[in-house]
Amino acid sequence: MHPKEAYHQKTGTGRLAQLSLKDSEIIIGINFNENKRLWELMNDEKYFPVLLYPDENAWTAQKENFAQEIGKRTLLVIVVDATWFCAKKMLKLSTKLQTLPKLSFRSGYRSQFTFKKQPAEECLSTIESCYYLIKELQNIGIANPEVSPEGLMQVFKKMIDFQLESEKERIAKGLPCRHPNKKIKPLELAKEPIDITKPLEFF
Prior knowledge:
Blueprint: H1 3-8, H2 13-20, H3 36-42, E1 47-52, H4 66-70, E2 74-79, H5 84-93, E3 102-103, H6 126-139, H7 150-172
Parallel strand pairs: 1-2, 1-3
Helix pairs in contact: 2-6, 2-7, 6-7
């Protein structure tokens, strides 16, 4: 996680994802070449480390023999949490991370982060990226198919509703509107409530 996300974002989706996913953790920095904790994890033989990033040569869950390559090891997914500009800078500096296999998911997903303007329509927030990746990994048996990832989207949508309500309060007080689209409507939540206080365990 970029320091700006760690120390200046109270409702960052990377932090919400970490709170929602069991055995996940946040490592803060910009250049991770010498990050002790990250390399401790990556050098652990029980893990199969990959970098979640939309490279044109990135693997997907549909990669032939993907599950066989992982074998009995646990998939260790490293997610870069930052703005797209800062994420590119982090990867440029963290040259060792670039040597990892890159993992992504099928194209065609569109972000529901309606409160925030994305640089391109295919750009997703961190929590959405985790959600779609888990869904695809469940389909091939790498992630536990009996654990629903919908709690991630529930948390995400509640955050957006909170942001919209806060914006309404700003406008009511005569403060400037911070949202690029004043006509935005809240997202619909799932019909059946999900316990979002319990971390989800997929691996």
